[in-house]
Amino acid sequence: PEPVVLLIAVAASMVVVGNLSDGAFKTTAVLSGYSSGTTWLVFSAFTLSAAFVTTGLGKRIAYLLIGKIGNTTLGLGYVTVFLDLVLAPATPSNTARAGGIVLPIINSVAVALGSEPEKSPRRVGHYLMMSIYMVTKTTSYMFFTAMAGNILALKMINDILHLQISWGGWALAAGLPGIIMLLVTPLVIYTMYPPEIKKVDNKTIAKAGLAELGPMKIREKMLLGVFVLALLGWIFSKSLGVDESTVAIVVMATMLLLGIVTWEDVVKNKGGWNTLIWYGGIIGLSSLLSKVKFFEWLAEVFKNNLAFDGHGNVAFFVIIFLSIIVRYFFASGSAYIVAMLPVFAMLANVSGAPLMLTALALLFSNSYGGMVTHYGGAAGPVIFGVGYNDIKSWWLVGAVLTILTFLVHITLGVWWWNMLIGWNML
User: Fold this and answer.
1) Could you tell me if residue 367 is inside a domain?
2) b/e map of 107-138 (b: 16 or more CB within 10 Å)?
3) Containing domain of residue 248, as a range?
4) What does the pLDDT look like over 159-190, one tens digit per residue?
């Protein structure tokens, strides 16, 4: 498991650093990632996401959406869009979001509509499962806290390119291209592989689901209030002069004080603890590499062996396109970030590519680049494993949406990012 690998790497690094003859660094430098605010930001966000499951608020939102816009199978595709979009800012695990909240509800709807994996997948389940995955790969780059890998990726961008992007700045930059892709994704899938049924008795499904949940509980109401305050805190953190990680810690403490979650819920939050070990370790190692000027050395190597003089825009296009191609070979977004993001960032640094534009495009392509395959992220095997889909149709839809997203980002996205830079909003 990744946390075990990182613990071994941290231990080995501490031994090496501790035996350096010049004593330039203390062994505790390797552990600096565990005191990093970004590490605790993602851990706190995991606690917030778990609350949506334990309180039932996630289910309630889903059934309300089904009742409002789920009267057609195309409409059900947009239910996955709005549900994932609402949950994304507070759910740094798209596996937990798509696989733990959205999938069980949408799968039960598919079964209720007579769609079964073996006998009748194309009735509606085939379409809905692909919608869940392709949508979550879009929402995952729309918010800094929508995917744990975003935190690590931005830390590396900070270390290598010395760029700072706030929670609000990230959301603004990703907002326009992300919303466009969310609007077209269900439609593209629906057009390529139309489900056999078109109309849905959504009112009956929503009524049954809400009846099972009962009246809205006080814990759900408090969670909704805390969630809104968390979003406002993250969006306006720069204006308020409050660190984003401080907002996250305050939110977690507030939920514990109000009884929205218990300490037992926090202890049982396996995803949060795994991420704490993994990201704390890798952020510490990344910081150490930055201190020993590893990234500066790598930049010199690239500078002496590559010639992009006067072709910064071409370099930008090539780097982002390569990032998508390379992403195909990685089953883990985190592994891709650790192995390849520093390389692409260094290429941008020495090639004359516009740094802020390249940084944003790289931060976002990590997520949508994983659309192509059913193993491009941990949520993929969970959703694909339900059994409604075949590899050929999944990969074809994924390839079309990946290329479409890429084109939107390097055209409309670049225009939008330049506007934000001009307005001093990035």
Assistant:
1) yes
2) bebbeebebebeebbbbbbbbbbbbbbbbbbb
3) 36-261+293-423
4) 889 999 999 999 999 999 999 999 999 999 99
